[in-house]
Amino acid sequence: MPTNARATHKPKSIVTRSSGASVSSVERAMRVLRVMSEGSNARLTDIAAAADLDKATALRLLEMMVRDGFVMRDALTKQFSLGPELMVLGAAALRRFDPRPIVRPSLMRLVGEFEDSAVLSIPSGIESLCIDVEEGTYPIRANYLRVGSRRPLGVGAGSLALLAWLPEAEREAAIDILLGQLQRYPRITAGLLHERIEQARAKGYAVLLDVVVERMGGISAPILDPQGRPVAAISIAALNDRILSREVAMAQALMREAMQCQVRWAEATRPGARTAHRVGSLRTSGEPAGGRKT
Predict the structure, then answer these.
(1) Sign for the pseudo-dihedral over CA of 156, 210, 203, 104
(2) 181: DSSP letter
(3) Which helix (H) or strand (E) holds 4?
(4) 3-state secondary structure 136-163
(5) Residue 152: beta bridge partners?
(6) What is the pLDDT of residues 258-276, one digit of tens each?
(7) Rounded distance, CA 56 to CA 21, Å?
């Protein structure tokens, strides 16, 4: 087995279609940016394939975004990358609230305790978005999750935790939509999702093994806001055997860290708190304002 366990990479479509709806130029441009945010699609061919666009349309959109600074093109390789204007937009969004300073100490502690990679994910529509990764020190690492990578909710432990703690009506609506988009994950069915969601809510954490990547899996706990909604999830990605042999210890550590993050989240987002500027120095204490609902 190679040192780094990776999923076989193919350009993948991230398109969410509405039946019978026409696709606007704005939606096509958003598809292109979303595809590029994963960092692995830099060639025109790959971008067009993953965004479900013909090459001529993709090139036209990319050239427009290059002119406005949202995309850059390397003069030698002809490959594309995200541009500085998106950094400005991202910084503006994070000034509103950035969860990474809250959660990063937890990721570091989890890696220090278990040696496997720890991941922070947040919900984005019916997808899970990876926004931070603390690489593990164990020689065989599950590094198929990178900052910027996206997955449908329910695909992966962190993504499953985000789905499991949604309000029931929203969760069922999301599953109905997701079932039409899981062709790349044939082991994930409605029955499996409902079974794992029930188990997760009963235990307080989610486990998904050998479903997305052979012999690899994850274990995760949700971070809830004061109203009990999942705003993020922290997870450990590792070989199946390393999770199964230490599931209880990993689960306890994840739930402990998630509770601490919930306290700081509630403090950082309360009315009048200076979220983006104070979030990194907030003190962790007491019990979470939003408990773990089952």
Answers:
(1) negative
(2) G
(3) strand 4-5
(4) CCCCCEECCCCCCCEEECCCCHHHHHHH
(5) 127
(6) 999 999 888 877 766 554 3
(7) 21
Give per-residue burial for 226-250: e unless 16+ CB within 10 Å, then b. Answer: eeebbbbbbbbbbbbebbeebeeeb
Q: In this structure, are strands 206-209 and 71-73 parallel, antiparallel, or unpaired?
A: unpaired
Host H or E run for residue 66: helix 55-67
Give Cα separations from 117 to 210, 280, 284 (angstroms).
Answer: 17, 22, 23
Distance CA 35, CA 204 (A): 32
C-alpha distances out from residue 74 to 38, 71, 81, 252, 291, Å = 18, 10, 8, 47, 49
Q: Which residue has the tokens 């019978």?
A: 20
Q: Name 85's Cβ contacts closer than 8 Å, sequence gap at least 6.
A: 68, 69, 70
Enter the tokens of residue 215: 């012999």
Give which of 88, 26, 11 is closest to 61, Cα–Cα: 26
pLDDT in tens, 77-135: 888 888 887 777 766 655 556 788 999 999 999 999 999 999 999 998 888 989 999 99
Beta strands in 153-205 (DSSP E): none
CA atoms of 47 and 55, how far apart (whole Å): 8
pTM, rounded to two decimals: 0.67
